[in-house]
Amino acid sequence: MRIKNLLHFTENHRYCVYREFGLSSLDERMLNLVYQPLTGAFAVSLYRLLCEQVDARRVGYSAAEQQRGLFLTLGLEPGERGRKQLMEQASLLEAVGLLQTSRVYFPEQDDYIYEYELQPPLSPGEFFRTQHLTLLLRDKIGKFAVLSLREQFFAPQPEGWEHPSLQRENISQPFYDIFELNTHVIDYELEQALTEVAAQPRNRQHKVSEEDLINYADIIRYFPRGSRNRAQVEQLRFQPEQMNVLSYIAYKYKLDIQDICRMLDEDGVFTSTGELAEEEIQRRANLQFRQGKKRTEERQIHEAKVVSLRKQQEAEQSAQAAETAETPEQTQDLQVEYAVEMEYYLEVPRQFTGKCDIHQYNMMLRNHPYTRVLEMFYPGSVPNSIHDIFEHIDINYKLPEQVMNVLIHYLLAIKMSQPGERLSSKFVDWIVTNMLNQQVDTYEKAVRYVREQQKLDVQLTDQARGRAAAAGGKRTPGRTYNRNTRPKPEIPIVENTKGKPSGISEEELAEVMRLAEQMQSGKNGN
């Protein structure tokens, strides 16, 4: 729970609880034996108290009440000390994935309401597959206690079921073999009623690290007072979700506060209701990113020409300064937000060997924008043709960032590493279309898709080699055209007689020379 001012979180503020699950006996056992050693008994008591705010026979929201009831039930002092204790216990629940806290602002009432969204405890299998939670439990209770707990939650197989010769066959009946739906009649009233009764989808915005978050105070400080968008920008103070969108776009396209303020001052970035036009802002941010990239390349070319005229020592010093300047950016790119299960790990490409391990590489693919991932594959500058291909995918196909990163791994680390392979926009469009047809919209689905494509590539390569080997073993007769035509006559070649003795004798040569002199003297006399 990130709250900098304790006056923003008091016992007088209202709260509500959101829950869409029910606690089973297995969940209760997980809370007692696994989560309680991680967070403590007080945090687990707070979790159970929040669960009871919603009727046990229903899911959804509880009534909005003052937090004073939480303070009194938990035995906390309604003051600064009690607020800190409640924030600490809620933060523990948030850290282990049992709670998500949001602060909702209501402009009509000019007040905040805190929303506590409860998450169900992980099942034993999911918990012990989560590496960081298992390691934390080991640090709390020890390695042998963790192994003992794991044995308590998993019932063993019947005797003799572990034999390798056993064969398992799925004989279950699918849905449409048993039931038949009347799809010829469409009940519009039922669909409309279900849509109205259904709970509204809860928005999941992009998560940005605390260091990259944009502060509202910085925006309003640089934003012009006479702008026509001043009123909409001032409303961003009470809209943390839209501030999160701005922070993510700024991090994705490397924009600073001045760039954000300049963009918010333009027409068309806010809708008629005063909300951010996310697609329009992203389009303009991408355009500004491309223009800045082009100017950066031109500046780098000019600087390279100037540096080439200087001495070698100054060039080495500038190169060392550039390397030290790039180090913090590379370290920042390896921030951890979403965990990746080990069964979905992708191998580290050869060009990243020694730079990052398999955990850091998969965290980068799971959490970072595709622009940052492309910069990792092209340390100098991303070629415009490559950037155009993935920009087209991002803007037109709306592919999620983590899916695009897995696609980048497949294209640049696997396909391009093979000899003779070239990256074309038609080939990439074909792959993206195939992914959209198969509804690949998560990181795990993308990893499974890439692995299936690798197997298919290996099969096609083996078949091509087999056909080439079969064709190489047979001798095909050469083609002959126009068999009935006569062959061309052989033309005699004049031999080189240089150096060979001639057949004329010396007397004949002297007679020829005499006749030539007579003819020459006769011409001169005439």
List the helices and strands and how they pair.
Layout: E1 14-19, H1 25-39, H2 41-51, E2 60-61, E3 65-66, H3 68-74, H4 80-95, E4 99-106, E5 111-118, H5 124-129, H6 131-141, H7 143-153, H8 175-178, H9 188-197, H10 216-222, H11 230-235, H12 240-253, H13 257-264, H14 278-308, H15 312-332, H16 358-367, H17 370-377, H18 384-397, H19 401-415, H20 425-437, H21 443-472, H22 506-525
Parallel strand pairs: 1-5
Antiparallel strand pairs: 1-2, 1-3, 4-5
Account of the protein in words:
By secondary structure, this protein is mostly helical. Helices cover 55% and strands 5% of the residues. The chain has 22 helices and 5 strands. Strands 1, 2, 3, 4 and 5 form a 5-stranded mixed beta sheet that branches. Helix 1 (25-39) packs antiparallel against helix 2 (41-51), helix 6 crosses helix 7 (143-153) and helix 17 runs parallel beside helix 19 (401-415). It is extended, with a radius of gyration of 38 Å. 17% of the residues are buried. Mean pLDDT is 79; it is low at 325-336 and 478-483.
Give me a quick take on this structure:
Among the domains are: 6-121, no CATH class; 225-312, no CATH class; 330-462, no CATH class. It is 55% helix and 5% strand.
| Separate helix tally | 22
Rg measurement, Å: 38 Å
Overall helicity? 40-55%
Q: Overall 3D geometry? A: extended
Number of strands: 5
Could you spell the SSE succession in H and E letters?
A: EHHEEHHEEHHHHHHHHHHHHHHHHHH
Unreliable residue stretches? 325-336, 478-483
For the sheet with most strands, the description reads: 5 strands, mixed
Proportion in β-strands: under 5%
Specify the structural class: mainly alpha
Mean pLDDT: 79
How far apart the termini lie comes to 129 Å
